[in-house]
Amino acid sequence: MFRYCVLFCVGLAGYLHAPVWCVCIGAGATTLADWWRMRWMVWQWRTAPPSSKSITYFVTGVLVDLLYAAAVFALGGTISRWI
Question: What is the model's pTM?
Answer without folding.
Answer: 0.81
